[in-house]
Amino acid sequence: MLFADVCAACGKNGVSPCRACAARLSPPPNLPLPEHLDHLVALFAYEAVGMSIVRALKYRNQRCALRWLSRHMAEHVAGHKPEIVTWVPASRSGTTRRGFDTGELLARRIAHELHVPVRALLRRTGGEMQSVRSRVDRQSGPSLAANAGTRSLRLRSVLLVDDVSTTGASLSAAALALRTCGFRTVTGVVAARTPLGATG
Ligand SMILES: [Zn+2]
């Protein structure tokens, strides 16, 4: 192996997360379903080990974490098999800085696992980066709109992917934009949800 993977949480050589760290993940917090979604699946809470795994993907583009997350996210939504997969687009500033959109990376791999097409159905219409805004400020969510051609796909069910959901406002805004294009069933899947009262 040319590049040894290390566990994003403990630094041990091998897969990320290692089996011990995966076992230490906290279950996702029991929070209300964000508006306009039919279901929302989260793998774990965005804290401790869970935060390390997501950050390894988000800020270091750790492919091992990407494989692990997308495989488990796909398994959890296999019962809601959609006609198409899309993602909540990251702000342009965040994507430019990192060189990739984590939601897109996850969506493409999840779609591959589910044998379902994947497409960019949404775009940001506002400017400000979500992760630098205060939590209160984020309740309103980003401004999202459907891309041209989304309605003419005439599809009914979609899987909406994001890395982390904090208030659920981004997922709500995305789901609403998809519903206005004719989607009847919007299932969300995120790697992690932030426990109430935490920051992140
Ligand atoms: Zn570990």
Task: Count the beta strands.
Answer: 6
Overall spatial form: globular
Average pLDDT level: 88
Q: In which order are the strands of the major sheet placed? A: 1-6-5-2
Global structural class: alpha/beta
Low-confidence stretches: none
Number of helical runs? Answer: 7
Task: Calculate Rg over CA atoms.
Answer: 16 Å
* Relative strand content: 15-25%
Largest sheet: 4 strands, parallel
SSE string: HEHHEHHEHEEHE
What level of helicity do the residues show?
25-40%
Cofactors, ions, other ligands: zinc ion
Spatial gap, N to C terminus: 34 Å
What does the model show?
With 200 residues, the protein is α/β, with parallel strands linked by helices. Helices cover 34% and strands 18% of the residues. It contains seven helices and six strands, in the order αβααβααβαββαβ. The protein has helices at 19-23, 48-60, 63-77, 92-98, 102-114, 135-138, 169-179; strands at residues 39-45, 84-87, 122-124, 144-146, 157-165, 185-193. A four-stranded parallel beta sheet has the order 1-6-5-2, sandwiched between helices. A two-stranded antiparallel ribbon has the order 3-4. The termini are far apart. The mean pLDDT is 88. The structure holds zinc ion. Zinc ion is lined by residues 7, 9-10, 12, 17-18, 20-21.
